[in-house]
Batch of 3 targets.
Target 1
Amino acid sequence: MTNLYTQLINHFPEDRSQIVIESLEGEKWSYLVLEQQTARFANTLTRLGVKKGDRVAALVDKSPQALSLYLACLQTGAIYLPLNTAYQLPEIDYFFADAKPRVVICLPELREAISELAIRHGVRQVLTLDEQGMGTLTSEAKTENPTFETVPCQDNDIAAILYTSGTTDKPKGAMLTHENLFSNALILREAWQWTSSDVLLHALPLFHVHGLFVACHCALLSGAKMFLLPKFDTRSVLDYLPRSTVFMGVPTYYSRLVGEEGLSADVCRSMRLFVSGSAPLPENVFYAFRDLSGHTILERYGMTETLMNTSNPYEGPRKPSSVGPALPYVGVRVVNRTGPEGIGNIQIKGPNVFKGYWRLPEKTAQEFTPDGWFETGDLGTIDEDGYLFISGRGKDLIITGGYNVYPREIERVLEDLDGIRESAVIGIPDPDYGESVIAIVVLESNQKAITQERIIAALKKAIVNYKVPKQILFVDELPRNAMGKIQKNALRDRYSIS
């Protein structure tokens, strides 16, 4: 295998004048412009001393130039380190200390604070890039050569480091190789039947697996076009859907689209695929979206360390609450099953599985079984058709009075009740039972009269008593990370009684 960048450009259309990116402001980038801008950035990074294997940290907003920066890192053989611009300085300080980037690209308004951290950690250069694609990086690149000789890379060379959320420990840097990224992208392109006629409506951030690797790689490997929205906005998405064919989102996006006036089969007339991931899709949203749009959302399962593992079929039944069968060449198994449901630990094996955690060889070794399977930390079951159902994270398992309670099972029942928009079930310390089950619930806007007593009474008709929450707490919204995942650790911290 060669450098991932070489693999990507080998799949660009022969006619490089074809449009690859159109922005919300109507700015259009051809494949030729993307290739030339990438080369200019690659030459700039090289002039700044970046060599193969060096880390380049990016705290930048979404833009065509931000995508070019990622591609330039691939082209130079550098390791791309995307960071959420919402991170606070102590978090960034930790990432710099751990990853030791050679160059940092950040938002102009962050430069002063980032420069202080950079000096502390020996970072050679700090450049800027704003949401319009302007900044010192772009300025320095203007006079650079629009061609660059791609640095050769091997399958196992690291292409990117993405830090996991670190809910129970310090964040860990997952090392993703050129082979990890290319093999997974090829599998998804085939599984989801991408072609050069596709138009991706891109509303995800570019610092995460879903938006950067799944969405962009699929489009680039297909010679397709992208509408690059700076962020998710329901009105903008509805405006662009009639001109698009593929949309990828997190469950929050679909929940908001369902609640927005204007979603219809006519608006979705040119669409062929809606993909959801990064968090469980509530069944009520699954059915409501299908009723309004005429499309069945395709749910898939992935994680930072493994990229995409399973997917509901493009052609074939898409089961609600399931993330589908294993993708080709990816092994998925459930071990140590317990209880009548057969819930167990989900393990993954395949070319998509990461190289390990940056500078943590002992932690890496702990996460793999003796026969080479990666321990995801997720719990689930596989049905008779091979479809995987996620029950939750292992750390979210609640043990009350000696019984195992899987939050996702209760959340599905809650979200089937009229008037409940979404929910999160957690365990809090209990002196008698060890842990007590509680549910935090968000109601539909017109359902304020629903009470704890009514919900508990309904649950007692649907699930065994030990699974019924002892308390129902009502909130206006649930805490989420940037990818829409509910932060149950934050809820546990808020509601636990020491």
Target 2
Amino acid sequence: MRIFWLYSTLFKLKFNKKKKLLFVNGNGFGHGVGMSQWGAYNMATRGKKFEEIIKYYYSNIEIIQYNNNLTY
């Protein structure tokens, strides 16, 4: 998703009421596909479990435990 023609959701908005101007300061260059590292980080800092974060970004998935018992 793009907003204000920014390629990343890492931006700040500042409104100057006197001049009636909106300033947009953006950073990053998101690809628009998959998980946002900053969005996932924010969810984690708010107490979301990794399963909830993954299922928020990816639909129709199943999370299973992987056991690699291979010997080389």
Target 3
Amino acid sequence: MVRAYFDNNANTPVLPEILEAMLPALQGAAGNASSIHQRGQAAKAAIEQARAAVADLIGAMPTELVFTSGGTESNNLAIRGVVEEWIRCQTGSASLPHLITSRIEHHAVLNVFEDLERAGHPVTYLAVGSDGRVDRADVAAALRPDTALISVMMANNETGVVQPVAEIGAIARAAKVTFHVDAVQAVGRVAVRVKEIGCDLLSLSGHKIHASMGIGALYVGRRTRLRPQLLGGHHERDRRAGTENVPGIMSLGAAAHLAQASGEPEARRLAGLRNRLEAGILASVPHSGVVGAGQPRVANTSNMYFDGIEGEALVIALDLHGFCVSTGAACSSGAVEPSHVLLAMGMTRRRARSCLRFSLGRQNTVDEVEGFLEILPGLVERLRRLSPVEASTLVQSA
């Protein structure tokens, strides 16, 4: 009964043309890319074609791209790989390198840094303002002689706010510090050019751009050294062992082609849908607002608060009417605590719990947005009536 799927930051549906690109490998036409027979070499050729397409999408060389199982593995390989290689090269030194990240990172980054911190690494967690952006001056101020890595995301998965990664990249280059960018929510939605950003490593994931789940990639600059996290065969130029996921890689290559071909027009279309959605909500639902309004955001993402309700209750109510939305990161679903991103932006816990994220995709239409706007105001009003304490708070603040 799904009337509209507005949770594309969690997962995008595989588009028909991308599924068609995967079918030969799924149906057995391709072998193991490490085999020297005809089917094996066909698989290898398909992988390299996809590698070239993904590399072209982000302005990299094909040899700089490592295929992984997704964004989480790419982030782990980048962060742990750099840190472990730095330690290996520092012969005679017992100290662990200093690391820098931000408080609004996805847990696929944040949890890695917290684990490294428990192991003894000094870590600086950069704060953000109410705008949800990292201040480049804070990055520069956090640098130390023993800083080995800076990791800051390009676009936040919950708010869509775009970070000043090119400015941070310039700071990292001047300090000769390795710079990693988690671009999982940015690739395919805004222009991503690794040379313009000035990053040494960049993570991306297929299932955020209408490819299949279980496939991602990590850009590794030519001069960047990192220690592999998976050991085995000599796959991916000894940077990531394991038989390649040929169907997934083919889907990612097809998705990269599609994103490259229609990037700017599709971004404008999605921005129009998002703006219509936000304007309609603000006009029809009192005590609502847009998180990160006025800041640079990816075109498909809107995070909005609805004072006087619990976001999870509204998610369930909307789901019963066929609309799929979320309260934030899918990886945190079911968490009792409000979003760490929203709290880092200075939002109260009560308001943070009232927020919903709407994330649009290629399949979404104007009719879906209009249908949503017809349903939402009544649901919010009903939920507020069911919460007399919250309702009285709204009356007092009006």
